[in-house]
Structures are given as C-alpha cells and as structure tokens.
UniProtKB/TrEMBL annotation:
It comes from Roseibium aggregatum. Keywords: Activator, DNA-binding, Transcription, Transcription regulation. GO terms for molecular function: DNA binding; DNA-binding transcription factor activity. GO terms for biological process: regulation of DNA-templated transcription initiation. The keyword ATP-binding does not apply. InterPro entries: LysR_HTH_N, LysR_subst-bd, WH-like_DNA-bd_sf, WH_DNA-bd_sf. The gene is gltC_2. This is HTH-type transcriptional regulator GltC. It comes from the Bacteria.
Length: 315
C-alpha cells in the first residue's frame, strides 16, 4: 500500500460511495475501484461491505481506517515541522477537556496561545472524562486534562493540582460548617451516575467508611445537580470551585469535609510513543503553565499543589 491508496480509502469511507469519492478525488471510478481491489488483495480480506445505499467498512476496514488516519496525520505533521524548523511552530493541536475544566482553562489558554503562538490552531473538545480518555488512547486528541490517571500504560501523566470537594446543601438547610463524611450515611443524595469519575471517587470513599451512598437522584450535569440540591432533592458533593458563585449569591450552602478532607487531582496527559511536533510541544508546556498559574493565583478556587500523601484523602 502507498499513501495515495490510504487517502483514497479514507475518502471512500467518508463519502460512503465509490461514485461520490471518485467525484471528490477527481479520479475515474473504474480506477478507484481497481485501487480498492488491489488493497483488498494485498491484505487478503474485504475492507468494505457494498449495499444499495453505499459502502461501509468491515472490521478490517475499520482497523485500516484508524491506522490510515494516524499515518496521514503523522506524515502531515512531519512535513509541516520540517518546512517550519526555522519559523514559529504551526499546526493544529487537539485538546480534550471535561466541561468543568474547560470552563476555567479554555479562555486563558486560547488567549495565551494567540499571543505566543499565532500560527498554532487549538481544537478544544468538551466531553465526559471517560470519552476524553478514550479519545486520547485512540489518538483522536493530542492532550487532555483529567481527574484520574489513565489505565493505558502508553499515556504520560503529570499531576498538577488537587481540588477540594465539599458537601452542597440548599440555602435554607441547617448544616454544619464542617462535617465528617460518615454523617452522610443513609442521607438521600443527588449524585452523578456510576460512570462519572466523581461518582467513582465518592463510592470508593463511602465504601472505605463502611456504607454506600443513598441515591435520591442521579444526573451527569453539575448545573442540574446544583439546581436539584437548591430545590431540596438532597445534598451533593461537588468541587468547591464549581459552587463559589451560588454560595456567594446565597442560593446554596456548603459544608467543608473534616481533615484531611476530600480532594481529587487534575492530571495533564499526553500519549507516549507518538511523534511530538513542535506545535504540540509548545501547547503542552503552555497548557501546563496556564493551569499552574490558575492554581497559584487562586483562580482555580480551593485548589492546592499535589500533596505527598496523595490526591484522594477522606475523613
């Protein structure tokens, strides 16, 4: 196989039709069909399933699709890096962030990147942590900031900070300024679903204390959790930075968790074993700088440098 064949295959899959792909590529359809036939013969398997509605990749075709994208992206980056060795770094850097982190990090990162690296384009995608982690392992993004280390041994991770979690109450609730987690035993709570990273931490914390959380409502949205708590459906546990505005406005109240408290870490992650462009290297360093600056200036509320004792402690 050669680069041209890989590009042709990607376009066929993208168009879902040999005819449309031939038009897009300005290649005669018989010639495009011959390229596809040669690829299938070389690999000894069918790559596409044909039907009246068009073509779809087989299991082998899906594998080739993923690898071809990675190969062509790496080739494009290599060409770009060589052409621009004597100039400012340029290219696209793809970043995946959970929504709560993106709300704090994206704007200062974009402003800093525009000032220092005007030829770099940032592509920032927001999603739940599980999706972001999968995209990083699959090579669909270049960098991520997540609240737990990846199980993928190929992923490099640096713990940048720990953020404090608090118990959240409606404004009219009688609540202590500080409390032990054990006091939440048998208290119906509004929490994220079991797939959410925060819920995994909460479940593990409660289990260590000998009980499981009592669920009043499950919902994977911090904004909706805050609304449900304010409406009296039950308390919750959220990062303090996520509720500072509501606490200041008096619509919600919080209890700090007794020492050593409950904290979770924010990790800057990048895939190992892949080519690193000058643009990626620059944005990796800049993203790290922005997060540490937010932490040290107090803009990432209730955060601290990583502690020797670890990122998750409870009482």
């Amino acid at each position: 196989m050669d680069i041209r064949q890989l590009r042709y295959f990607l376009e066929i899959v993208a168009q879902g039709s040999l005819t449309r792909a031939a038009e897009s590529l300005h290649v005669a359809q018989p010639a495009l069909s011959l390229h596809l036939k040669n690829m299938e013969e070389q690999l000894g398997t069918r790559l596409l399933t044909r039907s009246r509605s068009g073509v779809t990749p087989t299991e082998a075709g899906e594998l080739l699709l993923q690898r071809a994208r990675a190969i062509l992206e790496d080739l494009a980056r290599t060409e770009d890096d060589i052409r621009n060795l004597e100039t400012d770094p340029s290219g696209i850097v793809r970043i995946g962030l959970p929504g709560t982190i993106s709300a704090m990090v994206s704007l200062p990162l974009i402003l800093a990147a525009r000032e220092r690296f005007p030829r770099i384009t940032l592509n920032i995608t927001e999603a739940m942590s599980g999706f972001v982690g999968d995209w990083l392992s699959e090579g669909k993004i270049d960098l991520a900031v997540l609240y737990s280390r990846s199980k993928d041994a190929r992923i490099r991770s640096e713990l940048l900070l720990e953020e404090e979690l608090v118990v959240l109450w409606p404004a009219d609730a009688e609540r202590p300024l500080e409390m032990n987690m054990a006091a939440l035993d048998n208290v119906p709570m509004v929490l994220p679903s079991g797939a959410h990273g925060l819920r995994v931490l909460i479940d593990r914390t409660f289990q260590a204390l000998g009980f499981a959380p009592e669920i009043a409502m499950e919902i994977d949205s911090f904004n909706n959790i805050k609304r449900l708590v304010a409406a009296g459906f039950g308390p919750s546990i959220l990062p303090l930075y996520a509720v500072t505005e509501e606490v200041a406005a008096g619509s919600l109240r919080v209890s700090r968790i007794a020492a050593p408290g409950l904290w979770r870490g924010a990790h800057l992650m990048s895939p190992g074993g892949r080519p690193v462009t000058r643009a990626l290297e620059a944005v990796h360093a800049l993203l790290r700088e922005v997060i540490l600056d937010l932490r040290d200036k107090g803009a990432w509320a209730a955060s601290r440098p990583p502690q020797v004792s670890g990122t998750e402690t409870v009482s």
